[in-house]
Design a protein that fits this description.
metal ion binding, 130 residues, HMA_dom_sf, two-stranded antiparallel ribbon, Alpha-Beta Plaits, alpha+beta, Copper chaperone CopZ
Length: 130
C-alpha cells in the first residue's frame, strides 16, 4: 500500500512539474505588412520555432499575437524570425535584401530607421533596433 501511495505522489509530482516548466506566454508585437500574403508569411515565420504555439497577425492593426512556451523560446527569437522573412517589427529591421525580395503587394512603406539602428548594423542583414 505504501508503494502505491509513493508511486502516486511521484507521478503527481512529475505532472505538476511538467505543467509549471512548460508555461506559456501570450504577447503582442507591432509588425509591418500589407496583405493576406503578408499575414501568411508573418504567421509562418513566427511559428518557425516549434515552441511557438500560436501566431496571428491582424492586417488592419498590424499586430502579431503570439503564444509560446517561455522555457524554450523568447520574444526576440520570434521577432528575429519575422525580420528574417522580410518584415520590420518593433525589435528588428529586416535586411534590405529580404524586404526587396517580398512580393510588390507586401512591400510596405518603410520609414528611415537608420538613426535607431546600432552603429555596426549592415543594411543587408537583420538589424536590432535600439
Amino acid at each position: 500500500m505504501k508503494s502505491i501511495i509513493k508511486s502516486g505522489i511521484f507521478i503527481l509530482s512529475i505532472f505538476l512539474f511538467s505543467n509549471f516548466s512548460a508555461q506559456s506566454k501570450t504577447e503582442t508585437y507591432r509588425v509591418e505588412g500589407n496583405c493576406g500574403m503578408c499575414k501568411d508569411n508573418i504567421e509562418t515565420a513566427a511559428k518557425a520555432d516549434k515552441n511557438v504555439e500560436t501566431a496571428t497577425w491582424d492586417k488592419k492593426s498590424k499586430v502579431l499575437t503570439v503564444t509560446y512556451k517561455t522555457a524554450n523560446v523568447t520574444s526576440s527569437t520570434v521577432l528575429k524570425n519575422v525580420a528574417d522573412a522580410g518584415y520590420d517589427n518593433q525589435a528588428f529591421r529586416a535586411a534590405n535584401k529580404k524586404y526587396s525580395s517580398l512580393e510588390e503587394c507586401c512591400q510596405y512603406k518603410r520609414p528611415d530607421n537608420s538613426s535607431k539602428m546600432s552603429a555596426d548594423c549592415d543594411p543587408n542583414k537583420v538589424c536590432k533596433l535600439k
